[in-house]
Design a protein that fits this description.
64 residues, mainly alpha, 2 helices
Length: 64
Amino acid sequence: MEPERSTFSLAGAGSVLIGFTAACIVVGALIGWAIGKVGYGLAFGSVVGIPVGVAATVIKYRNM
C-alpha cells in the first residue's frame, strides 16, 4: 500500500490567510464608518485581522 499523500496546498493556505485578514479589515472599516472614523476602523481591522488570519490558517492546516 502506498502512503496517503498530504493535501496541504500553499495556495489554499494563502487564501485562508488573506480571506480572514481581509474579512476582519472590512468589518473594522464598517464599524469605523458607523462611528464616523473609517481610518481608525481600517487600522483596528488590520491589527486584529493579521493574527486572526494566521490562527485560522494554523487551525485549518494543523495536522497536515
